[in-house]
Amino acid sequence: MASPRLVATFAALSGLLLACSPSTPAPESQSPDTKPLSTHAPMPAAPVCDLAALSPRDKLAQLLTVGVTDAADARSVVSEQHVGGIMIGSWTDLSMLNDGSLPDISAAGPLPLAVTVDEEGGRVSRLASLIGEQPSARVLAQTKSVDEVYGIALERGKKMRGLGITVDFAPVVDVTSDPDDTVVGDRSFGDDPAKVTEYAGAYARGLRDAGVLPVLKHFPGHGHGSGDSHTAGVVTTPPLAELQNNDLVPYRTLTTQAPVAVMVGHLEVPGLTGSDPASLSPAAYDLLRSGNYGGPGFNGVIYTDDLSSMAAINQRYGVAAAVLKALQAGADNALWITTDEVPAVLDGLEKALADGQLNQAAVDAAVQRNADAKGGVRC
């Protein structure tokens, strides 16, 4: 459980993002002698003090995190669709983080907005131009002490928090000795589960103490996978029995150090997922929730890996189908990298909820976990 100090810190920091501001969409067409009826964007959603007061569509929207291209894209998807999170990616115009746009965008939905980023350091760094570069996890583990790694993460976390970032999809807790340039490679702290636990734990603690929610990835372990889930339609791990004594070991400790979230990878696990990737497998989510891998049960937020651009998913499903399957399987938050499909995704989810394909109690529980990770509701 989170300490009162940490919960208070996250609640206070979430409040820093709250404000209201209109924006200006372009009219569809306009002759020289006519004026638009309005130059204002849709009004921001009224703040919600009781999660039960959210509409079914808004509850479902809180379970989505989508990549944005710039401030206008973010403002539109938050104010019009009320998504719970946005992702800052390699394609994002980073000026939205330092031009004063973000507080107004964050306040445009009914609940505080999760502003997420994939900032691991090394070759996966989206914010290097703003917060500086950092060596890869492997180099950190080879050249720095655990305390030094904590300090590095704390400093970078404070810089991220100053930009408005609230969630970092880091650290990688995959266990591997693969060459640096492979899919995990130098993104891992090493091939010793105990060392990975120690160093990843220090990194997560630094982010957490800076007010940024760390996300452990890629459950149940990509380090010994058969390929790259970005480019391969099927990536298979060793059998579950082998993962329990290696790849899953860091989760036994790190999932107890709240607040923390977990990202589930697109990995087929013999003895667990069948032909489904873990991100779409009820058995994988149940393993994490129950702790039946030798760890504790986990009741924090569970994210999917990207459901749109990675071959392990998009060679099988479109975004709407993948999001539905992920939420049915047990994900709290479905992640993908564009905003254009959000309305269609929500249409499909609303229908699934009405038809009983999505369980209302499970949706409500996921909404609550996401809200708790943000520090609670606004009021």
TrEMBL record:
It catalyses: Hydrolysis of terminal non-reducing N-acetyl-D-hexosamine residues in N-acetyl-beta-D-hexosaminides. Belongs to the glycosyl hydrolase 3 family. The keyword Hydrolase applies. Residues 22-37 have a biased composition (Polar residues). InterPro entries: GH, Glyco_hydro_3_N, Glyco_hydro_3_N_sf, NagZ_Beta-hexosaminidase. It comes from Mycobacterium syngnathidarum. Pfam families: Glyco_hydro_3. This is beta-N-acetylhexosaminidase. Keywords: Glycosidase, Hydrolase, Signal. It comes from the Bacteria. GO terms for biological process: carbohydrate metabolic process; peptidoglycan turnover. Residues 1-26 form the signal peptide. Residues 22-42 are annotated as: Disordered. The lineage of its organism: Bacteria, Bacillati, Actinomycetota, Actinomycetes, Mycobacteriales. Residues 57-369 form the Glycoside hydrolase family 3 N-terminal domain. GO terms for molecular function: beta-N-acetylhexosaminidase activity.
